[in-house]
Amino acid sequence: MGFLDLFSAASMPVLKVLIVTALGSFLALDSVDIFGRNTMKQVNNIVFFVFTPALVGSNLARTVTLESIISMWFMPVNILLTFIIGSALGWVLLTITRPPQHLKGLILGACAAGNLGSLPMIIIPAVCNEKGSPFGDPVVCHEYGMAYASLSMATGAVYVWTYVYNLVRFFSVNSQDLNNVVASRDQLTESLLPSSSSTVNKKEKWKVRSEMMKQQLWNLSRRLNLKAVFAPSVIGAIVGLMIGTITPMRRLLIGTTAPFRVIQDSASLIGDASIPTMTLLAGGNLLKGLKGSGISLSLVIGIVIVRFIFLPLSGILIVKGAIYFSLVHVNRLYHFVLLLQFALPPALNIGTITQLFGAGETECSVIMLWTYGLASLSLTFWSMFFMWLVA
């Protein structure tokens, strides 16, 4: 493949995302006021509860079988590795920059969680349809690409709503909560320790430590909310996997001769609205970053370096190692998707999570503005390099 073919195949999908994102930002302007705050919130609810589950479920049901699920076992592991490596790099960034307490969860989440949902759903089909794509027949590429992207979205949603959600929740403790913890600790110590004039024996010290540990574990358990794991997109993925892998259900719903194919067709019709709507919402949310402040430039630069330099380089080593040890099946498109998962900007769901806890909402908008602005260059470069690498 020539350089121009690779550049065209890599850049066109990103340009499409930029155009629709810019339209979303324009609609969210105060002078236009089509995408106001209340409107965006309502549209976001429709995307979250209706469009995305229909998109994920219908694609998985149509393209995934039990054999293909077994062959794609490495993808959830690969995504987990992006979170682990991103978290480790984010922790290094925290030790260097020393941000405020309430921003630590946001920074770790932005470094760990990539946009494994809407961007692969847009980029992968667009790459398949571009002239000069190394992935063969566009129809077959699109079919399998949507299956990979759907599984990526579902797996990413599980990790985001278990890991990042609880990170932000844990670090969003306000000063009053901290004062309450300190006060309760002091009261506990005073009630269990004898006066300062007496000698504190080892048994009493151990009792104090054990009681304080119990209290801290109780406080932590109250902060964890594992119910958030079952986001609508995850439920849609479970339903889609059941239909795709259970033969009697598949015969009833999937295919031109299926008696209940109208259900699958309706779900696909609804799901098709998800990608453009999510992209418009992304543009509207990024507009907030122009008005935001309160986060240091070093933090933004650090997150950009983690997500667009160190993580893609780590991904090349991991995916190439998995191919070398025959952990993944021989499929260039599958390899490309695994590599792409390491080069994505932060997950848009992080903005929703910060809104839930009121911790770092403005700062999150600034991070999203810069990372998604620079992603137009980064994704073009890495997509082109990854296509050259797998071809």
Automatic annotation (TrEMBL):
Please give the organism.
Deinandra increscens subsp. villosa
Q: Which family does it belong to?
A: Belongs to the auxin efflux carrier (TC 2.A.69.2) family.
Q: Where in the cell is it found?
A: Endoplasmic reticulum membrane
Keywords per UniProt: Auxin signaling pathway, Endoplasmic reticulum, Membrane, Transmembrane, Transmembrane helix, Transport
Q: What is its main location?
A: endoplasmic reticulum
Query: Which BP terms does GO give this entry?
Result: auxin-activated signaling pathway; endoplasmic reticulum to cytosol auxin transport
What is the protein name stated in its UniProt record? PIN-like protein
Protein's job: Involved in cellular auxin homeostasis by regulating auxin metabolism. Regulates intracellular auxin accumulation at the endoplasmic reticulum and thus auxin availability for nuclear auxin signaling.
GO cellular component terms attached to this protein's record: endoplasmic reticulum membrane
The keyword Secreted appears for this protein: no
**Organism domain of life:** Eukaryota
Segments traversing the membrane = 6-31, 43-61, 73-94, 106-127, 147-168, 224-246, 299-327, 333-357, 369-390
Give the bilayer topology.
Answer: Multi-pass membrane protein
